[in-house]
Write a structure and sequence with these properties.
mainly beta; SH3 type barrels; OB fold (Dihydrolipoamide Acetyltransferase, E2P); six-stranded antiparallel beta sheet; five-stranded antiparallel beta sheet; 16 strands; about 55% strand
Length: about 180
């Protein structure tokens, strides 16, 4: 337990059985009435951001999340199966937690996961991954001269724009945070 006066951005707290990360907090003093702490909280399961006010000196449950290194294995039903690199246990992660990061998951990709107990709340991909181009968009002769990029489909199913000289079978470096081509490998 901690006091609402000690809430800081980046802290993880538990409210009503849900785990939230504090995005921002401000102490508000009003001319008439008691001061309070105004926060923006991000639900770690749904990425939904909510605003919540706390009375000063209100008790808040601070949660410590464990960070573990996982390696992606495969999709199993509506969950993704990972291997915990440290203790070699298998970990199932729901699709909701993975979200659009699924576009860059392939076998043996290492990720950083935040857990509370046995529940995975977030998965962070490496910023850069090297992936193979499976297919590139065909351009007709009239578009070739005016276009500088074209659409490509990666081995993971992600679609990104790449320069015209990139062909199917090429391996490229992709920035997973911005979904952008970086360079040919």
């Amino acid at each position: 337990m901690t006091s609402s006066n000690q809430i800081t951005p980046g802290m993880t707290i538990s409210l009503e059985g849900k785990i939230y990360r504090v995005e921002s907090c401000v102490k508000v003093t009003v001319a008439k009435g008691l001061p309070f702490i105004k926060t923006k909280l991000k639900n770690l399961m749904t990425d939904e951001v909510v605003e919540k006010n706390f009375k000063t000196d209100q008790s808040v449950d601070e949660v410590k999340l464990n960070e573990r290194r996982l390696e992606y294995l495969y999709l199993e039903g509506n969950h993704h199966l990972f291997l915990d690199i440290d203790n070699l246990e298998q970990v199932l992660v729901p699709n909701e937690v993975i979200g659009d990061k699924v576009n860059y998951l392939k076998e043996a990709v290492g990720v950083k996961a935040l857990l509370y107990g046995d529940t995975v709340f977030s998965v962070d991909l490496p910023q850069f991954l090297e992936l193979m181009i499976v297919k590139t968009e065909d351009l007709d002769a009239s578009n070739v001269m005016s276009a500088s990029n074209r659409l490509a489909i990666l081995e993971t199913g992600a679609k990104i724009e790449v320069p015209m000289f990139i062909e199917s079978g090429d391996i490229i470096k992709v920035d997973t945070k911005t979904d952008e081509y970086v360079q040919r490998v």
